[in-house]
């Protein structure tokens, strides 16, 4: 069966946050997608994943989850009520059932259990809710669609909260079933979720639905993938921080991978590799202005039109000093890197001097305490939190001046193309 003309659309939390958002999504599918050969990947509604994380935290500490659960259910039921006013509609029963499963799941959580494993079994409900709603809503709009369970297709190991994809199995399963289903109509599935070979749920990392869509696009040799966002495309900065952004009409995979790596939250960093491998173009489009040109990310030569500004919030700067006035040696560095790798702590920036070594990393208090416990006998460790990491790609004098203005710099680094600095979050 030919898989040539399949397209993949991904809709994030913002594009399914309300009943009106679901209606808008259906219009986009009708106008820009079509009735067949389109795979739609959907994230949890609005901030549902955050709400589920909070519920999980309460359940883990044996606190009462009832009020939070009721609030989350109420949010979903309100949207449901607007989209499906008739009470006999099967979607109502389906959502009731899913919320009952979630309630049981939260009840079962024991305080000593493997937190990361339980996380995946719990936080995954957001996408199960949204995909069930979308499946029924599109069907009611006359858009024939199959709802598939992405946990049965995206196969991962049990690296909880950041499942590593088994590409061979995933490709085999996707190619076995989906081309046929895609000939018959649309296929709807959940972003963010994977499954292990013994039937447990995994997740692919926060905001990982872009990556899910790219995995399906890769396995189906898709013609293109489009991610529908609340911005006009890939911009040179996050408009939530910068009032004067410009859109890149076309940009290379390489440039975008680097932006995502440095923290441009518009695209999950793992998304680009599968697409670049098969040269599948990625369109970043606005669900608020679907006719807009958006951005095409492809195998092109990028001509720099504006420096890119990237901000990573909630950073922590940790410095390791030797205790005996000897220098930081390769052996010392080896010890530090081993501990970081064991604890899965990612380095966002690093720098060494004669007697100390510093890293900038995402602020995670639990992991930081474990790191200190592991290394405190060998190093003097100091840390600062509530920091921000700024990166300017393709910088010039004006962009550096702009970033430096009003900041007390804790650490600064530059290469030929990239300027980075760490400063306090309150220095704006
Ligand atoms: N360089 C950038 N270009 C466009 N948007 C950006 C950029 N950097 C960060 N963003 C932010 O990404 C947001 C969209 O991504 P995200 O919230 O993850 O979407 P969704 O969850 O709906 O998929 C925008 O609202 C914007 O604030
Ligand atoms: N719902 C998950 C996965 C995701 O990708 O969401 P979004 O597309 O809304 O960023 C999260 O919030 O992490």
TrEMBL record:
<dbReference type="GO" id="GO:0009089">
    <property type="term" value="P:lysine biosynthetic process via diaminopimelate"/>
</dbReference>
<keyword id="KW-0808">Transferase</keyword>
<dbReference type="GO" id="GO:0009090">
    <property type="term" value="P:homoserine biosynthetic process"/>
</dbReference>
<comment type="similarity">
    <text>Belongs to the aspartokinase family.</text>
</comment>
<dbReference type="GO" id="GO:0005829">
    <property type="term" value="C:cytosol"/>
</dbReference>
<keyword id="KW-0547">Nucleotide-binding</keyword>
<feature type="domain" description="Aspartate/glutamate/uridylate kinase">
    <location>
        <begin position="6"/>
        <end position="286"/>
    </location>
</feature>
<dbReference type="InterPro" id="IPR036393">
    <property type="entry name" value="AceGlu_kinase-like_sf"/>
</dbReference>
<protein>
    <recommendedName>
        <fullName>Aspartokinase</fullName>
        <ecNumber>2.7.2.4</ecNumber>
    </recommendedName>
</protein>
<keyword id="KW-0028">Amino-acid biosynthesis</keyword>
<dbReference type="GO" id="GO:0009088">
    <property type="term" value="P:threonine biosynthetic process"/>
</dbReference>
<dbReference type="Pfam" id="PF00696">
    <property type="entry name" value="AA_kinase"/>
</dbReference>
<comment type="pathway">
    <text>Amino-acid biosynthesis; L-methionine biosynthesis via de novo pathway; L-homoserine from L-aspartate: step 1/3.</text>
</comment>
<keyword id="KW-0418">Kinase</keyword>
<keyword id="KW-0067">ATP-binding</keyword>
<comment type="pathway">
    <text>Amino-acid biosynthesis; L-threonine biosynthesis; L-threonine from L-aspartate: step 1/5.</text>
</comment>
<dbReference type="InterPro" id="IPR001341">
    <property type="entry name" value="Asp_kinase"/>
</dbReference>
<dbReference type="InterPro" id="IPR001048">
    <property type="entry name" value="Asp/Glu/Uridylate_kinase"/>
</dbReference>
<dbReference type="GO" id="GO:0005524">
    <property type="term" value="F:ATP binding"/>
</dbReference>
<dbReference type="GO" id="GO:0004072">
    <property type="term" value="F:aspartate kinase activity"/>
</dbReference>
<dbReference type="InterPro" id="IPR042199">
    <property type="entry name" value="AsparK_Bifunc_asparK/hSer_DH"/>
</dbReference>
């Amino acid at each position: 069966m030919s898989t040539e003309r399949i397209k993949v659309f991904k809709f994030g939390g913002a594009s399914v946050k309300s009943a009106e958002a679901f209606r808008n999504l259906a219009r986009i599918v009708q106008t820009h997608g079509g009735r067949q050969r389109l795979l739609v990947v959907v994230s949890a509604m609005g901030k549902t994943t955050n709400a589920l994380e909070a519920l999980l935290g309460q359940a883990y500490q044996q606190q009462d989850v009832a009020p939070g659960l009721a609030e989350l259910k109420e949010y979903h039921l309100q949207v449901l009520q607007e989209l499906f006013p008739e009470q006999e509609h099967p979607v109502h029963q389906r959502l009731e059932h899913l919320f009952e499963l979630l309630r049981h799941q939260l009840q079962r959580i024991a305080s000593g259990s493997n937190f990361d494993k339980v996380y995946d079994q719990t936080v995954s409900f957001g996408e199960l809710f949204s995909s069930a709603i979308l499946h029924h809503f599109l069907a009611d709009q006359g858009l024939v669609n199959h709802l598939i369970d992405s946990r049965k297709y995206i196969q991962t190991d049990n690296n909880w909260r950041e499942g590593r994809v088994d590409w061979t199995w995933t490709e085999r399963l996707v190619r076995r079933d989906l081309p046929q289903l895609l000939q018959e109509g649309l296929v709807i599935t959940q972003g963010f979720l994977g499954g292990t070979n013994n039937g447990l749920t995994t997740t692919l990392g926060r905001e990982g639905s872009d990556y899910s869509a790219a995995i399906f696009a890769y396995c189906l040799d898709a013609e293109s993938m489009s991610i529908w966002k609340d911005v006009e495309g890939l911009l040179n900065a996050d408009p939530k921080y910068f009032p004067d952004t410009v859109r890149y009409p076309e940009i290379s995979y390489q440039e975008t991978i680097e932006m995502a790596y440095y923290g441009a939250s518009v695209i999950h960093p793992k998304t680009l590799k599968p697409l670049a491998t098969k040269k599948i173009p990625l369109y970043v489009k606005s669900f608020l202005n679907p006719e807009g040109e958006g951005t095409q990310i492809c195998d092109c030569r990028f001509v720099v039109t504006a420096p890119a500004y990237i901000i990573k919030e909630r950073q922590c700067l940790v410095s390791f000093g030797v205790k005996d006035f000897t220098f930081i040696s390769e052996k010392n560095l080896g010890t530090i890197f081993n501990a970081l790798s064991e604890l899965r702590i990612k380095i966002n920036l690093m720098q060494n001097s004669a007697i100390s070594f510093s890293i900038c990393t995402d602020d995670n208090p639990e992991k930081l305490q474990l790191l200190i416990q592991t290394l405190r006998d060998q190093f003097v460790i100091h840390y600062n939190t509530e920091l921000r990491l700024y990166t300017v790609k393709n910088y010039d004098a004006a962009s550096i001046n702009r970033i430096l203005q009003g900041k007390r710099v804790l650490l600064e680094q530059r290469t030929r193309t990239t300027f980075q600095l760490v400063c306090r979050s309150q220095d704006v």
